[in-house]
Amino acid sequence: MDKNKIIISHSPYLWKGFSTAKIMYLVVLALLLPAAAGIYFFGLYALLIIIASVATCFLTELAIKKLRKKRFRNDGSAVITGLLLALIVPPRMPIWMVVVGAFFSIAVVKEAFGGLGHNIFNPAIGGRAFLAICFPTQITEWIEPTYFRLDAVTTATPLSPDFTYPGTQAELYRDLFFGNTGGSLGETSALLIILGGILLLALRLIDWRIPIFYIGTVALLSLLLGQQPLFQVLSGGLMIGAFFMATDYVTSPVTRNGKIIFAVGLGIITVLIRNFGALDEGVAFSILIMNAFTPLIDKYLKLKTLGLQKKKEAS
Amino acid sequence: MAIIRKKGIFAGVKLPENKITEEEPVKRLPLPQKVIIPIQQNIGAPCQFIVKRGNEVKVGQKIAQSDKFVSAPIHSPVSGKVSKSTKLVNPATGALLDAITIDSDGQDQWVDLDSILKIEDIDSWEDALAEIDRIPPKKALEKIKEAGIVGLGGATFPTHVKLSPPPEKKIDTFILNGCECEPFITSDHRIMLEYGQHVLLGLQIIKKILNPSRLYVAIEDNKPDAIAHMNKLLEQMGLDEVDVVSLPSRYPMGAEKTLIKTILGRVVPMGGLPMDVGVVVNNVATSKAVAEAVLEGKPLIEKVVTVTGLFGEPQNLLARIGTPISALVSHCKLRERDQYHIILGGPMMGLPISDLQFPVNKGLNCVLIKEGYADDEQNCIKCARCIAACPMDLMPLKYPELVKNSAYSQCSEYYIANCIECGSCAFVCPAHIPIVGYIKTGKKKLAEK
Ligand code: SF4
Ligand code: SF4
Fold it and tell me: Taking CA A153 as the corner, what is the angle to CA A150 and CA A154, rounded to the nearest 5 degrees?
C-alpha cells in the first residue's frame, strides 16, 4: 500500500454524523410552524419581514467570513437567527429596520464575539434589543391580526396595561392559544410554538428542563402574585422564548442542573420585569440577563466524575 | 449457575455494530517468513532481549525478560534465526521502540513444554478439574508469569500481577469479561464459541488463585450464541458457582469501570483499580491463554486477531505474534481506496499506524482498515451531547478549549485523568471535534510537568 494513502488521525474513527448543520436545519423546520402562524395572522407583509431578516443574516455572515478570510459554513445558524428575529419584531416593522436589526444580530452579537459557539448573547434577542434602543416607537407598534387584509388596526398587546378584551375569558384564552391577538409576528400562536417545541423535544434537540422550568416558574410566581397563571404563560413572548430562544445551546448552561438554575432565573426575572419594570414584557431581557450569567453558572457547576465521591470517602 | 440479565446504568452510546466477521471461524494464518518482536509489549517495566543477532531460536523460547515484577517475558513465535535489530514507532506514544527480527526456518520447532494435559484431549471434565485442583496456586501464578501473559483485551497489564492483589485487598468477585463492545471486533466472540473450554478452564485456574466468592461471565446480549454456549459449557463442566450475565450492548460496556458498575453497582474510586472494590476483571482471551500456559505449558506466542473493514475477505485469524500487519492485510484482500485509516484495535479506541511492517503484538485484537477522511473540526456549539454520552460523567467539551489554550492544569480540575478515552464524546459531537485527541495531548502535557 502506498504510504501517502494512509491518514493518521486520532480515534475514534466512527462518527454519528449528526452534524451541527443537521441540528440547525431541523430547528429551522420547527421554527417554520410559528412562522406560518405569523404569516397567517399578519399577512404577506410578515413573509416579507421573514425573508428580509433571514437573507440579511445569511448574507452578513457570508460577507464577514469572506472579509476575515475564514471558511463560511452553511450550518444553518444564521438562518435560525434570521427567523427568530423576524418572529419577535412587530408585524408591521419597516423592512429597512428589520435589515438593520438582522445585520446587528450577526455582525455584532455573533461574529464580533468570534462566531458560532463563542457568542455570549442570543444573536436574535441582541438584535431585537438593538432595535428597541434605536427605534423605540416602531418596536412597540402592535396591530390586531389582519389575516390577509391590508388595513391594520393598532392595538395593545395582552400584557399591556391598556389591554381590553371584548369577549369572555374562555374566548380570550382561545385567542391567546391559537394566536388571534396582538403581539410580535411569531409569538402570538402558543399552539404552533408548542407544536414546534414538541418537535424539538421529540428529536432530542433541546433539553426539556429549560422550557418546563421557565414556564413553570412564571406560572407559579404569577399564581403567588395573584395573577392568572395561564394568561401569563400564554401571553408575551414566553412560549417562543422558552422553547426556541432560552434553549439556544451556545448561550445556555451545559449541565442539567445549570439549565434548571438558568430556567428558574429566567422565570423570576421575567415576572419581575412584567410586574415591576417599565416594560410590559420581560422575556427578551430576562434571556439576555441570564445569557450573561451562563459562563458563571457553567464555571461553578462542575460535574462530579464517576468515582470522585468514592475517592473522597477513602481519603 | 444462571443467566442474569442486567440493565445499563451508565451513559455511553449505542453504536453501529459492523460485526462483519461474527460468523467467520478462526483460521490459522500461514507461518510468517519473518517476525518482528518489539521489546515492549506490556504496561510496566520493559524487557531486555536475551538473544542476539545470529542466535538460533525455537518456538516458545524465551527471548526477552525483565527482573521487575510488573513485566512479562517475551517468547519466540517461530523457530529460526535472529537476523537483525530494528526500530519501530510505538503507535501509542510516537516514540521509537527497539525490536528484533527473526527469520523463520519454516520448521516450527518448539521447545519442550511443561505440559500437564492437552486441553483438546480432555475427555472427562471431572479429571481435568481435579488436575487443576492439584496445582498449587503459587505454581499456577509462576507459570502464568513465565508464559508472558498480559491483558489481551488491549490493556497489556501483566496478568500475574493482576492476579496477585496485595493481601489487604480482599477480592470477593471475579468477572470474566466477554464483552466486546467495540464495533467490528469479533475475536473474543469467536474465542468464546470456539475455545470455550479453554476460557472456562482458565476461569477455574483463576478461581483457585483468587478464591473469590462470586464468579461471573459477562457477555452482551448481541452475542446470544456466546451466552448460550458459555452457559451450556458451564453446565457440562459442572461449574455451578459461575453465573453468566447478559448485558445490554451499550458502549463502553466492556470497560472495567462501567462493567463493574453495571454488574455489581460498585463504583471504582477515581484513580483507583477494580481491586479497590474487591473485584478482578479478566478478558476471555486472557483466560484462554492462562489455561494454555498452566495446563499445556504454552507461552503466549499467538493471538486471535480480527482483520476487518475494507477487505474482500475479512476474517478472524490466529496469527503468531510478530507477524507483520502487511501479511494479515494481503491475506484478507484489501479493497482499493484513495485514502485509508489503518487502525490497531477497534474504531473507537484503536491506534493509527502508517507502517504496515508493524507487527502483531500481545495487545492486538483487531486490524481495522477504514476509508480515510480528513478532519473537519468545527466550533463547539455547547450542545452538551458529549456530556450526556460520557460514561465517566465528565465534561468533555472543556478539554479541547483548555488544551488549545495550554491550560493543562485546569484540565485536572475537570478530572481529565479519570477519562478512559472511550471516544463516546467525539462520536456524538456534531461539530466533529476530535475531543479524545485533545484529551490525550492534555494528559501527556500534564505527565510531562
Ligand atoms: S458534543 Fe461537541 S459541540 Fe456539543 S458540547 Fe460537546 S464538544 Fe461541544
Ligand atoms: S471524556 Fe473520556 S470517558 Fe468521557 S466520553 Fe470522552 S473519551 Fe469517554
Answer: 130
Question: Which of A3, A9, A16 has the most B C-beta neighbours within 10 Å, making it the best mutation to test the interface with B?
Answer: A16
Confidence bin at A1 (pLDDT 50/70/90): low
* CA-CA-CA-CA dihedral for B308, B311, B317, B322, to nearest 10: -90
pLDDT digits (tens, 9 = 90+) for B51-85: 999 999 999 999 999 999 999 999 999 999 999 99
Does A34 have pLDDT greater than 70? yes
Best mutation site among B433, B436, B438, B439 for ligand 1 pocket (most ligand atoms within 8 Å of CB): B433
Ligand 2: lining residues by beta carbon, under 6 Å: B 389-392, 394, 396, 419-425, 435-436, 439
Mean predicted lDDT score pLDDT of chain B: 93
3-state secondary structure of B153: coil
Distance from CA of A21 to the nearest CA of B (A): 8
State the pLDDT at residue A121. 97
pLDDT digits (tens, 9 = 90+) for A245-299: 999 999 999 999 999 999 999 999 999 999 888 776 789 999 999 999 999 999 9
Distances (CA, A) of B376 to A9, A19, A95, B441: 11, 11, 38, 18
Q: Specify if B169 maps to a domain.
A: yes
Rounded distance between C-alpha atoms, residue B148 and residue B140, angstroms = 13
CB contact under 8 A, A307 and B329: no
Q: Chain A residues with CB inside 8 Å of B358's CB? A: none
Whether residue B338 is contained in a domain is answered as no
Q: Do the Cβ atoms of B337 and B370 come closer than 8 Å? A: no
Q: Tell me, yes or no, whether B13 lies in a domain.
A: yes
* B288 and B390 share one domain: no
In a domain, B42, yes or no: no
The CATH number of whichever domain residue A290 belongs to comes to: 1.10.3430
Instruction: Encode pLDDT of B292-311 as tens digits.
Output: 999 999 999 999 999 999 99
How far, in Å, CA of A257 to CA of B413, rounded? Answer: 19
Residues B279 and B406 in one domain: no
Residues in chain B within 8 Å Cβ distance of A309: 267
* Residue range of the domain that includes B202: 3-22+118-296
Q: Do A302 and B395 touch (CB under 8 A)?
A: yes
Contact check, Cβ <8 Å, A11/B418: no
pLDDT tier for residue B256 given thresholds of 50, 70 and 90: very high
A50 CA → ligand 2 middle, Å? 41
Range of the domain at A210: 20-300
Helices first, then strands: H and E counts in chain A: 13, 2
CA distance B430 to chain A (A): 4
- pLDDT reported for residue B105: 93
- Nearest-atom number in ligand 1 for the CA of B378 is 3
